[in-house]
Amino acid sequence: MVWEVQLLAPEGCEEACSEILAAAGSMGSVMEWAPEVGARVKVKGYFSEEIQRDDAELRVQLSLAAAQMPWAAHAMVWQHLPDQDWAEAWKKDLKPMAVGQRFLISPSWWPKEKTSRIQLTIDPGLAFGSGSHETTSGCLEAMEWVCEKTSLGAFLDMGCGSGILAMGAVLLGAQPVIASDLDPQAIMTCRENCQLNAIDTVTTVLSEAVPVGPFNTIVANILSGVLIDKSSDLADQLVPGGRLILAGLLDHQSQEVLAAYSSRGMLAEKIIPKNSWVILVMVKP
């Protein structure tokens, strides 16, 4: 048996709620659109049977209050789930989806499709990046756009999660490709997904630091605060003419991120809006 806890978050705050659940001990989370209650997203986290529920609930409430989201705690619902329900919970809403002009992203349990698109098989597990979120699909679209202008060349996926962007880069011709993350679970999931797709050219790096380049293309689909903190390191590892694809930021955060990278000499080349999210493509002169 495991505990399932459900929060109700406005659109755009679902990732923050997921991170709060993870910090409280969640083994993973799923997100479900809830149109019946307006522009809201159900964020469900899963905790082991042994967890001290009262302690975990208090940590979540305090974190939500500190993040100025106390209203999410008001809709908090806990329930017990059999283990088999937990094992399948995050799978039920994942189906094949076309992304951009070239990709078809399919869950690992879905039969292979007959298509001219580049197929990527993904088992996200407990790592972020199934292709369904706007930031992930937006990064793949940005990578396609860069490929129309030049090759991706030496490629870094900073904060790789499931490895979907690193694998997409390989299939678009990038080499070499490095996938970096500070989460051991993400590195493990990335390696497993590479095996699923018969890709053996992705080098994984378990580190919080930006790997040493130089790189022609860097994709960083992480939080806006981390993007700002690492602006100097990311810009330094690009070759002249190289491109940064920055994601994980909401529309109202884009100007602050743009300012941080502009101060490092980077130039904004393209902005891709995806609902309340923004993907930035920047070039190093």
Write the layout of secondary structure elements.
Elements: E1 2-10, H1 14-23, E2 29-34, E3 40-48, H2 53-66, H3 70-74, E4 77-81, H4 83-89, E5 97-99, E6 103-107, E7 118-122, H5 134-149, E8 155-158, H6 164-171, E9 177-181, H7 184-196, E10 202-206, E11 215-221, H8 224-229, H9 231-236, E12 238-250, H10 254-262, E13 267-274, E14 277-283
Parallel strand pairs: 6-7, 8-9, 8-11, 9-10, 11-12
Antiparallel strand pairs: 1-3, 1-4, 2-3, 5-6, 12-14, 13-14
List keywords for this structure.
Alpha-Beta Plaits, globular, 10 helices, about 280 residues, Rossmann fold, alpha/beta, four-stranded antiparallel beta sheet, 2 domains, seven-stranded mixed beta sheet
Would you tell me which CATH topology of the largest domain applies?
A: Rossmann fold
> What topology, given as strand order, has the largest sheet?
10-9-8-11-12-14-13
Rounded mean pLDDT is 83
CATH-assigned homologous superfamily of the largest domain? Vaccinia Virus protein VP39
Protein structure class: alpha/beta
Overall geometric form: globular
Q: How large is the share of residues in beta strands?
A: 25-35%
Give the topology string: H per helix, E per strand: EHEEHHEHEEEHEHEHEEHHEHEE
Largest sheet: 7 strands, mixed
Poorly predicted runs are: none
Distance between the termini: 55 Å
How many domains?
2
Number of helices: 10
CATH class of the largest domain: Alpha Beta
Estimated radius of gyration = 19 Å
**CATH architect. name of the largest domain:** 3-Layer(aba) Sandwich
